[in-house]
Amino acid sequence: MLRLSFSTKALLLALLLFSFWWFSPLFFKRVTATVFQEFQAPAWTGLSYLRDLRSYWSLRGQDKETLIEAGADLARLNSAYSIRNQRAAAIEEENERLEAFFDLPPRRDYRYEVARVVRRDLNNWWQTLTIRKGLTAGVREGQAVVFSGGVVGRILRANAYTATVQLVSDPRFRTAAHFEGDTRPVEYRGQLHSGLGSAAGEVSTVPPDLEVELKEPLQLTSSRLGGTFPDGLTLGWVYHLEPTPDGLFQYGPVRLDPRLRQLREVAVLVPVEAANGNSAAPLQP
């Protein structure tokens, strides 16, 4: 009788499992992947809570003078944000008045579902990240994800208590956009890059009459024509444009916010319930 070594048995078992997985139906693969992610989610969430607890106790150990200075800085920021909120409220009232005057359809309203970032894979650092909110919090596939600097990405997959975010730097990410002060739509997409360096995107279908200077870059913002993001959220900055070979349009690199590298907390834009009581369906990418 042929006796196999332990390493040979392990290799045969791995080949058997790989063959079983390879020839399994697609539905079985999807269910298995979902179950595996749900199984891992409590561990990721638990580690995230432990990191928050460690940060809490580290702040408790700070001296009083440091805490007083931090409180003063927060008070100044709160005052500035209070003024901005008043201006934003006045602008919203003006928009509602103009929409009613011109009989325009109302803009979709959102609530902010704040979520902590629990995991970020080194191999897909600029493609995806995992947040600590899921279906139980109203998070659905295709919803927009933002932070204080603008667009983070969109929800790629939503599980019960976690969700996967497709980042704005992912080469598969595409959306409609426009430049600040110019309503003409352009196309934005992420760029392929490796490592943990600065990420970038690319803008195309830019009108040929649009000019940009190195000292005065153009701000690229989101457009609701893309169906996912509201107008005016920052995507990045454009410092250089080149004409396409046919000369009909321009294209160029988009510099993204460097804070995307170290995100700790994001907000998901969850559509609020419509006036008739039915929840607004999430926008698909």
Précis, in short:
With 285 residues, the protein is α+β, with helices and mostly antiparallel strands. The chain has helices at 6-22, 26-60, 64-102; strands at residues 110-119, 128-131, 144-147, 150-158, 163-167, 174-179, 186-190, 200-206, 218-222, 234-238, 242-243, 250-255, 265-271. The chain has a domain at 112-273: Beta Barrel (Thrombin, subunit H).
Write the layout of secondary structure elements.
Layout: H1 6-22, H2 26-60, H3 64-102, E1 110-119, E2 128-131, E3 144-147, E4 150-158, E5 163-167, E6 174-179, E7 186-190, E8 200-206, E9 218-222, E10 234-238, E11 242-243, E12 250-255, E13 265-271
Antiparallel strand pairs: 1-2, 1-13, 2-5, 3-4, 3-13, 4-5, 6-7, 6-9, 7-8, 8-12, 9-10, 11-12
Q: Can you give keywords for this protein?
A:
alpha+beta, 13 strands, 6-stranded antiparallel β-barrel, Thrombin, subunit H, disordered C terminus, 285 residues, 7-stranded antiparallel sheet
